[in-house]
């Protein structure tokens, strides 16, 4: 079973392994565009049609994939405040992929916050969840790239093409979360 351990399945902020990406991501978009965000460039895929159909597949393991939802430290705090839970009740420490510090716990392969098919902490869910089926890679200090996960999201191919404004909005969210996590984005 594949696990979210590579840059392709979680928004990590380290250099891309381009050779691996070429092999792994079979649904790579053909074209990329970019926009400026203050002092950095952000690449995003074009030609991607997507709309979430709320199937909750990205909130649980599948027969071929072990879902790993990584969490930033301030996201852990927000979830604690929202739910009244202690961090260890819904997450485990995860030191291998900074700036993430925790990983969401699951029960029977499902995120603990998946209740009756919906996210019970929707307003404070981690950016790992907000970004799905994309994740953000940091190529270097001045360039980021939104990538498509290799897992099959049922919303892909639906609705209209995602716009530059959509990815700009995602990047604004990333900036807010990462700055709170103490990341220096050199913006
Ligand atoms: S797998 Fe895709 S369509 Fe299903 S809930 Fe997640 S983002 Fe939405
Ligand atoms: S936090 Fe919410 S959106 Fe994220 S995996 Fe859990 S149930 Fe799904």
| Residue runs with pLDDT of under 50 for 5 or more positions | 5-26
How is the biggest beta sheet arranged? 4 strands, mixed
Structural class by SSE content: alpha+beta
What number of structural domains do the residues give? 1
Strand order of the largest sheet: 2-3-14-13
DSSP strand tally? 15
Mean pLDDT figure: 84
Please report which band the strand proportion falls in: under 5%, 5-15%, 15-25%, 25-35%, 35-45% or over 45%: 25-35%
Q: Portion of residues in helices?
A: 10-25%
The arrangement of helices and strands along the chain is EHEEEEEHHEEEEEEHEEEH
- Amino- and carboxy-terminal Cα gap: 38 Å
The Rg value, from CA coordinates, equals 16 Å
**Distinct small molecules bound, one entry per kind:** iron/sulfur cluster
* Count of DSSP-assigned helices: 5
Features:
alpha+beta, four-stranded mixed beta sheet, three-stranded antiparallel beta sheet, 24% helix, 28% strand, binds iron/sulfur cluster
């Amino acid at each position: 079973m594949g696990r979210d351990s590579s840059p392709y399945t979680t928004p990590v902020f380290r250099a891309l392994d381009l050779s691996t990406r070429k092999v792994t991501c079979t649904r790579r978009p053909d074209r990329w565009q970019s926009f400026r965000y203050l002092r950095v460039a952000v690449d995003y895929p074009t030609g991607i049609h997507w709309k979430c159909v709320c199937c909750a597949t990205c909130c649980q393991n599948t027969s071929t994939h072990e879902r790993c939802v990584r969490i930033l430290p301030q996201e852990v705090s927000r979830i604690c405040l929202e739910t009244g839970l202690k961090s260890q009740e819904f997450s485990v420490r995860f030191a291998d992929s900074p700036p993430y510090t925790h990983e969401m716990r699951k029960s029977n392969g499902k995120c603990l916050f998946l209740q009756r098919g919906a996210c019970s902490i929707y307003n404070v869910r981690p950016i790992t969840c907000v970004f799905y089926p994309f994740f953000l890679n940091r190529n270097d200090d001045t360039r980021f790239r939104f990538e498509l996960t290799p897992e099959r999201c049922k919303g892909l191919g639906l609705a209209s093409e995602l716009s530059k404004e959509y990815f700009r909005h995602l990047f604004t969210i990333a900036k807010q979360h990462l700055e709170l996590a103490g990341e220096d984005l050199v913006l």
